[in-house]
Design brief:
Elements lengths: L2 H25 L31 E4 L7 E3 L10 E3 L2 E3 L7 E3 L6 E8 L14 E9 L2 E7 L35 E8 L2 E2 L5 E3 L2 E6 L2 E8 L21 E2 L7 E9 L2
The structure holds magnesium ion.
Length: 260
Amino acid sequence: MNARKRAAVMRGPMVLAWMVLAWTAQAAPQAKPEDTEVWKPEPRRVTPAAPNRAPSDAIVLFDGKDLAEWVAADAPDKAAAWTVADGAFSVRAGSGDIQTRRPFLDYQLHLEWRAPSTLKGSGQERGNSGVFLASTGKGTGYEIQVLDCAEATRTYANGQAASLYKQHIPLVNACAGRGEWQAYDIIWTAPRFKADGALASPAYVTALHNGVLVQHHVALRGETMYIGAPGYRKHGPAPIRLQDHGDPVSFRNIWVRPLH
Ligand code: MG
């Protein structure tokens, strides 16, 4: 077959294919913008957060007045013994960690903290506290670090403020100045476990420090460990715990929105 004949033979199926495509396009109903509009479910109305005001659907964990939503972590039937003054509460050194009265699974958390402006020591000794995003027992859970970071006293990067302690270094250092209030906004996805205790899916954390993204959907390798490798142990909904590390760190304007 010469080239001209071969081209003619090829042209036949091509013309047929074009005709089928043209017919299909003609037969299809005309697409409209409304075809891709979704009207249900309609999101429920929430009054947004404002300075010193929680969103309307949040559970307020501290409104400046009392520690009614908090208990002693080591004795959950006892009231939290930290100091409330001037619309904030502060670690009462040596009294122990405190934790929320209620357990939570997945949530959005807002809290503000302030390291003392008169600090001695260096590294981990300066304004150390912490937020355990799920408290799993005495001293255990998943900690996002609270630590003075206004001064140039370096500590290990995976232990500085806004680190997921010894697991994830913050993307940037978004610290406020010395003695200033700082905000954490945290999205916590709790780990899930199978019936036999095996891990089904890890915990995930997204966090903003003073409005700046510092942890971007990072997966945790397990509960925070001071020494050694992190690991998971099966647990369900858990309280949020604040750490007494011996420094009078203050907290205010704390609210949580459960996401389940
Ligand atoms: Mg700490």
